[in-house]
């Protein structure tokens, strides 16, 4: 008896046995490339627009701000509507053994995921802080120094463009000796503070991408074999493009030393290929894989729950809190700018939540 067999219902009637739907096979193959284009465009455009010497001056800063706030809303809606809700359905399926109904496993797994990410980040930040302290620096984790430079990367590009801010131990003097800064492009040994800033940014974006990539693979698998392919296909094109815009806007905000410049591009490419890979795998196993089967429900439910916890933590703590509460520029901004930012975020959240009606 396998582990999963203990949680399956004995009567497999109407529980998705056999393979998935294989109609419109040509369109399913085409979906690999269509979604690849949409996902890659959404994730890579903000990164390339920020880096391109020709395109960057031609794209107003307001476009990047809109993408950043809109993307934050998209990520938060994805966590609740596109991950946690399906996980509750999957782990509450009538095809599973009665034991699954006696406890809200999906919520428990999401809760576990939130605290796991929290502990990982605490360890990473304490390690980084200790490393800085050993060379006489202190790290401003919430970005209360210059601009809005937070531990998870810059939340603005005004005062702190291209710099990692390292505050003096007393945190009060503006004297250069007591409030040293190190340029992101500095390759000297004293740039170890910059390395800490780079590592914290990379850890933050890696956690975000991990949760989204798991979700994207499962979306691809489902799309490849679902019997509601046409409707789901159209919805997922928009879903992946908007979600990619959210990821790409975060990647474009990263301020890294030259040797880490490949990270945002790599992150955009990883996002762009995961759903097409999921579709391709689903097409390859379409004769045996069925998303409604008991095994698929258990595996998808657990992964969706885990991913939901990651995105809930990232969205509420690292995006919302650091964007609006710990961002000095936002705190001191006009009411109009604050209202605009909130409206952009709510727009992204609302559109992504609406897409949850179909996918």
Explain what this protein looks like in three dimensions.
The chain is mostly helical and 359 residues long. The chain has helices at 25-51, 61-91, 105-133, 192-225, 229-252, 262-284, 294-325, 328-331, 335-355; strands at 138-139, 149-150, 153-154, 163-167, 181-183. It has one domain (25-138, 190-358). It is 63% helix and 4% strand. The longest helix is centred in the middle third of the chain and has 34 residues, at 192-225.
Question: Which structural class best describes the helix and strand composition?
Answer: mainly alpha
Low-pLDDT stretches: 1-13, 142-196
Q: Work out the helicity level.
A: 55-70%
Number of strands: 5
Task: Please tell me the overall pLDDT.
Answer: 79
Tell me about the biggest sheet? 3 strands, antiparallel
Query: How are the strands ordered across the major sheet?
Result: 1-4-5
> Which word captures the global form?
globular
Reading the helices and strands in chain order gives HHHEEEEEHHHHHH
How large, in whole angstroms, is the Cα Rg? 22 Å
Number of helices: 9
Q: How many angstroms does the end-to-end distance come to?
A: 34 Å
Q: Strand portion, in percent? A: under 5%
The tally of domains stands at 1
GO molecular function, one term: zinc ion transmembrane transporter activity
InterPro entries: ZIP, Zn/Fe_permease_fun/pln
Region (Disordered): 148-185
Protein name: ZIP-like iron-zinc transporter
Layout of SSEs?
Blueprint: H1 25-51, H2 61-91, H3 105-133, E1 138-139, E2 149-150, E3 153-154, E4 163-167, E5 181-183, H4 192-225, H5 229-252, H6 262-284, H7 294-325, H8 328-331, H9 335-355
